[in-house]
Design a protein that fits this description.
It is a single chain. It contains no helices and 29 strands. A hairpin with a 2-residue loop joins β1 and β2. It has a domain of 139 residues.
Length: 344
């Protein structure tokens, strides 16, 4: 058992390798950069898994206790961690928060059904199901206004996307007339991004407009596309598989142009978040099991980073202040959450 420790604030200077792509040529430079890491875990956590960070610096996620039960949490900007467990839950995952302190996610009940929930800043919960007869409702994203997107299974176990309005109305949709719709992101304008399956069970990305119009997309060379995040400008990031089953990161600009996001030397890349200015964040491997974090700046510069002493560093989101949230396993193999930023 690992009791709660005060969050450790680690400030140190490293030689970061900045790889700048100019005209298709990679030029390596070595420049000093100062990184800030804050490691954190709720009391009694045996594993801590952040899900997102909002513009106020609050982190939503879940942790595993000593009895292997999942609990949601909200880490406030000052470092206070609050457990998030709707009444009747036997396992909770908090997925997103907004600056007002609202948290959304899902929980399991004693019968094995999964329900969505919203927790307001005063700790009051509202439970919801995306459709009558649904036994699985999974919110995955929430925008600053409180609109929620995710997936649910209907009574026949078919998977659909959904949008829940601030008033509580739920709109079901099947992206681009496909099946198995997974809505992974929603921005301030109400645009929704995610992926769906076609008749051959291949996944494609989609962008759903605020009035419901759907556009399917795939990066060039993709046989499987899985978007993970979108910013308010409509830029979308994620990953795709090529015909050789190699996993690449991608950025889709609002105008529809694509950029591969593969840190030099990477064998597999996953892009997990994008800031308002277009800075992308994610993780990659170099052909080994170890995972490394990276930032890709709007000018194409890559910055690779690792949490101190961690064989695995997994960034999962970034906010407008450039704060990156993720998890790392430098503490005797037990995953903890981290906040990362670069000193200007």
């Amino acid at each position: 058992m690992h009791p709660k420790r005060p969050s450790t604030f680690v400030r140190y200077t490293v030689l970061a390798t900045l790889l700048v792509v100019l005209g298709g040529v990679c030029l390596a430079q070595t420049e000093p950069a100062t990184f800030h890491f804050v490691s954190f875990a709720p009391k009694g956590a045996q594993g801590t898994y952040p899900g997102s960070i909002d513009s106020a610096g609050q982190v939503a996620g879940f942790y595993l206790n000593s009895a292997s039960v999942l609990h949601g949490f909200l880490r406030k900007a000052g470092g206070i961690i609050v457990s998030v467990d709707p009444p009747g839950s036997v396992g909770t995952v908090a997925r997103a928060s907004n600056p007002a302190g609202v948290v959304s996610g899902y929980y399991g009940d004693a019968s094995g059904h999964y329900h969505g929930f919203v927790r307001d800043s005063n700790g009051h919960y509202v439970s919801f199901d995306a459709a009558s007869g649904s036994t699985l409702t999974i919110p995955l994203a929430m925008n600053p206004q409180g609109r929620i997107a995710g997936l649910y299974n209907d009574a026949k176990q078919a998977t659909h996307g959904f949008l829940r309005t601030v008033a509580g109305t739920v709109v079901s949709f099947d992206a681009c007339h496909g099946t198995d719709t997974i809505a992974t992101s929603i921005n301030s304008a109400g645009q929704i991004a995610g992926y769906y399956s076609d008749s051959s069970h291949l996944q494609h990305g989609f962008l759903r407009g605020i009035h419901g119009a759907c556009r399917s997309f795939d990066p060039p060379g993709s046989i499987k596309t899985l978007p993970t995040a979108m910013n308010d400008a409509g830029a979308i990031v994620g990953f795709y598989l090529d015909a050789s089953q190699v996993q690449h990161g991608f950025l889709r600009k609002p105008c529809g142009t694509y950029f591969n996001i593969d840190p030099p030397g990477s064998g597999s890349t996953n892009v997990t978040g994008i800031a308002p200015d277009g800075t992308a964040v994610g993780y990659y491997s170099r052909g080994t099991a170890d995972q490394h974090g990276f930032l890709r700046k709007p000018d194409g510069t890559f910055i690779s980073f690792d949490a101190p002493g961690a064989p695995d560093t997994v960034p999962l989101g970034i906010n407008k202040a450039g704060q990156v949230v993720g998890n790392e396993n430098s503490h005797n193999g037990v995953y903890r959450g981290f906040l990362f930023s670069i000193v200007p």
